[in-house]
Design goal:
There is one protein chain. By secondary structure, the chain is of the alpha/beta class. The chain folds into 3 domains: about 150 residues, Rossmann fold (3-Layer(aba) Sandwich), CATH 3.40.50; about 70 residues, Helicase, Ruva Protein, domain 3 (Orthogonal Bundle); about 60 residues, Arc Repressor Mutant, subunit A, CATH 1.10.10. Helix content is about 45%, strand content about 10%. It has a 5-stranded parallel β-sheet with strand order 4-5-8-3-9. A two-stranded antiparallel sheet has the order 1-2. The longest helix is centred in the middle third of the chain and has 17 residues. It is globular and about 65 Å long. The relative contact order is 0.11. Bound molecules: adenosine-5'-triphosphate and magnesium ion (MG). Adenosine-5'-triphosphate binds next to strand 2, helix 4 and helix 12.
Length: about 350
């Protein structure tokens, strides 16, 4: 790990994320687009530095909001491909029937609606990096095609007969434990081994010690710089930053700072979400849930999901249908709520 990169001030990351430069809090190290000085982050920087020098496929594993995409971006930026494209694809957001055409492209008339031939993400990312987020959400059938493309470095457009040579470096990510995903038949074992030539772990915020305050201060500094303001954290806000578990990780904390910044005159207060949620739990009126103005979206979603589940007498299938989400999504959400309720000391 070149120490000069770590010691460099925040301007490098600010340049790479296209943000206005804000002075970096003392003690906060920056590496590529990532910020953090805890041991787990320093180890991660070392690993990124190594993998960036190679063409190896990497699999980034970590909870939601821990910075997996930023890690992928940083690998790309530090690699020989940095002048090429970086294309991020959320595999979980593309209907399974379309993913093959999205990744590999399609020829005209290859399926209903394919009026024009079109290149896919593998072609667009040529000379650069293709970041496949939520790779386990692709069905096993599509995973076979992906594996083939990775193994042979070649693929066909859907409906195409000419083999295309891929020149994209693939980095994948998942917020599931890959071994568990294999056991649950969500991830093909052969694909896991192929992707995880170089496994990387995005550590959750709760393992990053004093990075929590430093990162929050960094986000506040950025907001101050962007808004020509000079707001500061209250003592209570600093307590919350240290003691709250931040189940949504960096994303949740960053959004909490943003919300608190908007609400604050000069002193930015950050109420402990545990306490605030207990005090403000939405009143349920018959079939309606009253959600307070300013309730974080994730919390509003939780209240709607739980109230609908109750309304449906605990029938998860009906609940998922009523909410217009897949049963899998509902189970995921309920699992998260259970973990949070019984979670580590807040
Ligand atoms: N180390 C970090 N330094 C600065 N900002 C960070 C860091 N880690 C994450 N962030 C910020 O947190 C947010 C979430 O990051 P990112 O989208 O990379 O997470 P993710 O793990 O890919 O999330 P998901 O699992 O939901 O896809 C972004 O706004 C990102 O800029
Ligand atoms: Mg992501």
């Amino acid at each position: 790990m070149p120490s000069k990169d770590l010691e460099a001030n925040g301007s490098e990351a600010s340049r790479e994320t296209g943000k206005r430069a804000a002075s970096k809090p003392a003690g906060l190290k920056a590496y590529g687009s990532l910020f953090g000085s805890s041991d787990v982050m320093l180890q991660l920087y070392e690993q990124i530095e190594r993998v960036a020098q190679t063409e190896a496929t990497a699999l980034i594993v970590g909870e939601s909001g821990t910075g997996k995409e930023l890690i992928a971006r940083t690998i790309h930026d530090r690699s020989a491909r940095h002048d090429g494209p970086f294309i991020a694809v959320n595999c979980g957001a593309i209907p399974d029937s379309l993913i093959e055409a999205e990744l590999f492209g399609h020829e005209k008339g290859s399926f209903t609606g394919a009026a024009q031939a079109r290149g896919g993400y593998f072609e667009h990312a040529s000379g650069g990096t293709l970041f496949l987020d939520e790779v386990t959400e692709m069905s096993p059938v599509r995973q076979v095609k992906l594996l083939r493309a990775l193994e042979t470095g070649k693929f066909f457009r859907v409906g195409g007969t000419d083999e295309i040579v891929s020149n994209a470096r693939v980095i994948a990510a998942t917020n599931r434990d890959p071994n568990m995903a294999v056991k649950d038949n969500l991830l093909r074992e052969d694909l896991m081994y192929r992707l995880a030539v170089f496994p990387l772990r995005a550590p959750p915020l709760r393992e990053r010690g004093s990075d929590r305050e430093l990162l929050a201060q960094h986000f506040l500094d950025e907001l101050n710089a962007d808004n020509n303001a000079a707001k500061t954290f209250s003592k209570g806000a600093l307590d919350t930053l240290r003691s709250y578990n931040w189940p949504g990780n960096v994303r949740e904390m960053k959004n909490a700072v943003y919300r608190a910044f908007i609400l604050a005159e000069d002193i930015v207060d950050l109420p402990n979400p545990n306490v605030a949620q207990r005090a403000k739990r939405a009143p349920v009126n018959g079939d309606a849930v009253n959600v307070w103005v300013g309730t974080p979206l994730a919390e509003a979603q939780r209240q709607i999901i739980l109230a609908t589940l109750k309304h449906c007498g605990g029938d998860k299938k009906r609940t998922a249908k009523a909410l217009g989400v897949s049963l899998k999504t509902l189970y995921n959400r309920l699992g998260t709520y259970e973990t949070e309720e019984s979670g580590a000391p807040q």
